[in-house]
Protein 1
Amino acid sequence: MMDSSPGSEVNPWWRRVVIGRRPVVTVIRGAALVVCSLILFKFWLLPFWISGVSMEPTYRNGHFNFINALSYLRAAPRRGDVVAIEMTGRGIMYLKRIIALPGESIAIRGGIVYVNGEPLNEPYVTDRSDWNMTEVVLGPETFFVIGDNRATDQSRHRHGEVGRSKIVGKVLF
Amino acid sequence: MNVLKRILVGIALLTVLGIGWRVFFPGAEAKIRRQLTRMADAVSYEADASPLSGLAAASRFVEFFDADVAVAIRIPGVGQRSFRGRENLREAFLASRAPRRGLAVDFLDPQIRLSGEGEAIVEVTAKVTQPGNPDIQAQALRVRFVEGERGWVVSTVETIETLGR
């Protein structure tokens, strides 16, 4: 059987499905979608894979998530926020939790974090090793970040002070 | 239609010329980026690579450095390591390959500042992975390149502590 109706050869059904009735409009829609996606995922929601165990058990190795790069546009980072910290760029970033804010003093004794001399309640930490750090007072625009996994050896765990400018945004989920 | 075609052909020609110019006459930044890629290739190796290939790689690797190169880096879990000169660098390179577990190194996000005649400061993140190990090691580095007869070579390497104490 052959379909001899006019138009069926010129514009077959599969072509209408893939390209649409008006190809120019489809191309413009496609281009707009690409541009919107680039803006969305380059400047607002930055997709990333978690690699490493530094934030376990809250964030596990191999999981996927987004960083909201606009989260601190109007508000300052807060204690307890899990944030991405850039190194020399955004190709690879640290994922850490803010535990002390600018101007506060912080110390670690026997695995317990003390902020302004008071022990910090950290329900997200399930296992603690005997970490120690002498008291430091944070400067203006400086935060103290650390991972949730405190079971590892302290010398192998990256934690410390970070400037506001290095904080890219807050983890979305 | 003819005008549109001419414009398109003109744009295509300019694009090809631009790409060709960059390939055949790369600027200092492009040359330094290329050096970083070559260095990453030289330091990366497959698991169970032969010691002989390690020696060859070491000879290739030290060629990227100035004879009096100064290295001061902090390795997590190991501590601060400092040495000077290509021979010491060669020894450190061979020692790093001794476990023969394999290593993949990438230099990401290079920020290149050309400062003065024949000198550049590059801040770059070294990403290190090992086969079978899900953990990625990353370390920001400040690398000083100088331009000499052999092109751009590394004169100093030091770690940048993103998370200070």
Protein 2
Amino acid sequence: MNAFVPDFPIARHLPSKSPRWSLLGALLITALVQTQVQAQSQAQADDSLYQAIGGQAGIARVTADFVPRLRADPRIGEFFKETKLSELQKQLTDQLCVVSGGPCVYEGSNMKDAHADMKIRKADFNALVEVLQQSMDAQGIPFNVQNRLLARLAPMHRDVINAP
Amino acid sequence: MPLRSFRLFRPLPSFRTSPRQLVVGGLTALLCTAASAQLSVAGGNGKLLLTGGISSIDGAAGGGLTPWAVTGSYATTGQFGASAYITRLGTRDYSFTGYGVAASWDDRLEVSLARQDFDTGDRIAPLGFDGLRLKQTIVGLKWRIAGDAVLDADTWMPAVAVGLVHKQLDTVDAFKDVLSSLGAKDHGTDVYLSATKLLLAPGVLINGTLRATRANQNGLLGFGSTEHDRYRLQPELSLAYLVSKQLAFGAEYRFKPDNLNPSPFGDGLKEDDWKDLFVVWAPSKNLSFTAAYADLGKIVPALAPKRQRGAYLSAQGAF
């Protein structure tokens, strides 16, 4: 009858089942500490990520691997059919340098304008992420460094994805 | 002559489908659909590796014990996808087999169908149920209502989903009597809200689920009881760490109600929370394997007084 009246198990569990709460607490604390570390590293706007990728030379190696790989990708290679690949590579190098905290200036157009005349779906965006991961793997960038860079690039999905 | 007329008037074989047939039929249909979809549009592959979670024991995508705000398969926006899984869990006194299928659309909507078979072995033979197997069929529906668990890496906004799972126990007649003596029903529906966030930079996934439920031991011992028939809100927490694109490990904790305590058996049907430590390996988008160490607490402690811990193994195919 009053079947939907909820009962809060937190109150019921708290006094008698403390070992469970210590596990739960440990899990939460681990998560919070992790994100705290992440927040601090971003707040200081340092160049540690830029350095971790290998500075200008490291980024240049990644983009030199990435651009031909992108063009050859069966899913999204067609998007770059008309693109001047050497120009794309230069702009990507500058962009990754800026995004990772390096001492560069990105002079290319913003992400929204750059993709305005293409229909980019979420699947295309994720395919590009996968190709970038392949390039970073190939250039020996450690997984945790890759993720720090991807975390700064991923929010660009709001400007890049423009088709359902 | 009498024999012939008997045959003539014998009723046609019944076409009423059992839940098992339903699941097997559904699985076949989905596999065929997925196979043809793969051939015709080659779609449903647009999500990043492991970002569809695995198949939970109730069939919905998530961790092993709890649903997450992700949809199964690798279908992203505008795509269809499907997945199928089988899970085995052996504990000190019991063994559990689960299998099922899920289909998702637009990384938004997920429909799942699962079948569970809990083998009590000889544990509850003293009650006259030697070799009793508790089986149930579970239909799930999940709708991601907001957020993106992966790409919104600069905000705290998680993916958020609402879902329901409807469970129907198969019951042999004698066990039906036990259920009714406890005041438990043979079917029930859980409703849940899940929030999932991948903290991309550190590679940590957090999920919190709040479930409104009346299920006893996930429904395997029915739903509600004479003493406790209300829905209760139960939190569930999952934490996972990505070691590589293909490998993650983590832990889960799922609170459960304790409706059958007390019962006519005193505290003999008391139930505990569930937890596990897991490792997931996805060699490709089509295949993932999960190994876990699960602790289901005590299950029918009147007859099986030790905690039920053991290995959980699951394989999932996604199409």
Protein 3
Amino acid sequence: MSLAPKTEAAKAHVPAVPVGMGALAVSNDPTARLSVIGLGSCVALTIVSPKQRVAGVAHVVLPDSRLAAGRAAPPGKFADTAVPALVERMADKGADVRLMQAVLVGGAAMFGGRVRSSVMAIGEQNVDAITMALDLLGINVAAIDVGGVEGRSLHVDVGDGRVLARTIAGPERLLFPNGARELPATRHLAA
Amino acid sequence: MNYEVDIDVGAVTDQPESPLTDEQREGLAEVAKTISEEAADSFSKIIGRTAKAKVPLLEVLPLSEAVESLGGPADQVTAAWLPVVGQIEASVLLLFDDASEQAICDLLEVERYGELANSALGEIANIIGTRYVNGISASCGMTFEPEPPEVASGMLGAVLGTVLAMSTVMTNYAVLVDTVLKVDKTDCTVRFLFIPSDSSVEALISSLGTQ
């Protein structure tokens, strides 16, 4: 059975807003849908504040902003800077940090053999760095779907805070809100 | 209250310098054109059919737009990735769409979705990629070579994003040399990307054509 959301966005067929690599998007438009299509080693950090109908997504590429060696970087690119940037911009839209809930999706290692270890390390480091930065701000991680060997896509409906994810061949899965309690923490790290 | 979606992708202009001058672009494109014809020749020999290279496109793209400029991020592809190591770091990525993968498996008489198919696609990548990388290496007088290919299937965005993550550590742009090899009288095409890491672009470009 499809878990297609019955939000205002779905009803109105509002086009999804794509969040590309390193980008960061925040919205208080209840009809809006934010999407990241085709996540490999990158991690989509979603923060929702459903009561206030504010949601945001950062398309995190790498774990540590020091890798940029002082050069300017897009706000969502590095985990350590993406988390505070996303939280701040959500607060600007009226979200209360005490009510924010985070969902992490991505961090897969799609290639095997000699490159697997380096790609897997990036995915894992992205997840760890995001988790640590969220913890510093006291933000709960409500659901996590990371690792494995398959890419994923993610949709966030701002109006009701629903977060949905899928792999290329798999069904759409609800990660937040209700699915968070039904789904185990699915950190499938490939053997 | 105003309802809105704010999106911030950073800016290429945030970078301290432009990655390539027009002259450098032309130089790289010229080298790529010659080598892509050699790569097409190698491809033809493997599959036993004539394959031709379209004129390569040299693209410098903001990171957030790089994937979508090459196709739908949800499109199913099979990719062979050859990391390039040595005096510069780069990646060679061969992309096979669904129909082309089937056509190549038919031409090579291997069953699709098996180890043998992956091995065959990897070998094609190895031969084309090695020819291409050696051509660039010879043109700039630097030593670098491809590592053995790894093959994966999945969404274009996920495959390309994984490679770009490792190629755009310091900057907000991706440099791609994009070549399409087309097999005569079929719909079979192979997309062939050469992606120098951002830390290597300057050294690569400044030494191109020096030999």
Protein 4
Amino acid sequence: MRLLMTAAAALLALVVAAPAVWAQDARCEVYEIEASAAEGGVDAKLRRLESKLTKPPFTAYKSFRLVKKHDAGLTLDTPQRLGLQTAGTMELLLKDKSAEKGKKVRLRLGVSIDGAKGKRIVAATTQLDAGDSWLIAGLPVPGKDNAVYVFGLVCDAK
Amino acid sequence: MSGPRDDLELMQMFDGETAGDEAALDADQRAKLAALEQVGDAVRTHLELAADAAEPKLDAMWATIERRIHANGKAPAEPAKAPAKASQPGWFSRWLENWRSNLMTGALAAAAAAVLVIALRPPRTEVRTVEVTPPVEPVKDPPTALVKSEPPVVEDLEVVGGSGTILTIPGEEGENPTTVIWVNTEPVEGPI
């Protein structure tokens, strides 16, 4: 009986949540990473970005630790704000989405990072294919000379 | 002269072998003599009729003998017979009448053989080579691996209180390069 109730609840949650997911234009994974020169390797949870993190300009770092991972659903022209553990906030804005025949879905994505005091640090707009990754790195880790923060973004869309 | 004394003398007198006086014959001997004349006439008439009937056969026989004599003992060539007329009425009917049972038996045997050949023949195997051209359907959704991709493009970059550098990490096989924005800011003591 308990199993049946659990299954029914799962089915209900799926039915309720599915339209909300399908209504989104893109889904993005945001990785907060601390890279340092200390030995440690690449966090197993960073497998999706590992091939990038082991190439220049990241070869100066030997440890990549996942601080936090965020999942964000994006809707066109609707900013999505994430509270960062390493800094203040990150705002994602899906500015455009195109799906031409024979091509991957193309996204036009705006990203801005503000400090803890609300001060703007960096803002950029990039066009990239769905599934491609985008890295913003170089923000200093407080109290650590040989460490930086790396923000990795991977967005999927159909 | 006296008359015959018995039948033998009477027959000799009838045949002319002995002279006799018919006047001396009695009534009985005259009746016998008349009977002999009648029997003689009957025999002569019968023989003449038989000779007349046998005359064509005897002529043909004599002709054959004569031809063989002229051919010096060899068998002479038979005179060419007139070819039988196929359309002679009655010829085919007679032939058919004589051979009808044989013909019917042969026809039935042939029919039975034909039925057996048809019934017992192995199943017919027919090999046809047909060239089939599969219909070419347009590709609706090409595989993802064949979908053309474009490298990322940074439209604008703004770094407040520092500088930014756009770097590119080459992608692996079939993968787009990755854009890296490297931000250079002053080291901070507290949270950024």
